[in-house]
Amino acid sequence: METLALHSFFYCLIAFSSTMLQFCIAADTISPGQTVSGIQTLVSSDQVFELGFFSSGNNESWYLGIWYKKTPGVLVWIANQNSPVTDPSGVFTISSNGTLVLLNQSNHTIWYSNPSRPAHIPVAQLLGSGNLLIDNVTSTSESYLWKSSDYPINTWLPGMLIGKDMSNGLN
């Protein structure tokens, strides 16, 4: 009986530890069924950029953005710059077709990406360049479904291009 209890204890301890480890390790990707909310963030693999929620200072307007991890005040991209979430309970996720979605506390869509085509097995990844990409897990091409650098704010990052993208018509 003691052996069964001991095995059960260790099983629970291992399951709990692996769950907690997932929360402690910074990930740079998000897949369908996963979310970023509250103080959770995605961090680029080189630890330079971070994606998450931030407040405009009054704690009444919350935004989903990308910033330099070591200098959080330097924003490089904002998803919902024209439609803030009114409290810190927003949720960021990726749908099964590859659309990034930002939901408010009432589960209403505040912002969404517009991928160039549906994804079969989508994943969003925050790169070391500060670019958030949507791609198929199985893709071997450089033809991404969507990228945040196509929607810049007032920060210029290395590798960003100026001009019209003939493949999608964006300026």
Please provide a written account of the structure.
There is one protein chain. The chain has 171 residues and is of the alpha+beta class. It contains one helix and twelve strands. The termini are far apart.
Task: Give the N-terminus to C-terminus distance in angstroms.
Answer: 70 Å
Quaternary state of this entry equals: single chain
Shape: globular
Which bin fits the share of residues in helices?
Answer: 10-25%
Poorly predicted parts: 1-24
Mean pLDDT figure: 81
Radius of gyration: 18 Å
Total number of strands:
12
How are the strands of the largest sheet arranged? 1-10-11-12
Fraction in beta strands? 25-35%
Any descriptors?
171 residues, alpha+beta, four-stranded antiparallel sheet
Structure in a nutshell:
By secondary structure, the chain is an alpha+beta fold. The protein has 1 helix and 12 strands. Strand 3 and strand 4 form a beta hairpin.
Secondary structure: elements and pairs:
Layout: H1 2-24, E1 29-30, E2 35-37, E3 42-43, E4 49-55, E5 62-68, E6 71-78, E7 91-94, E8 100-103, E9 109-112, E10 122-126, E11 132-136, E12 146-147
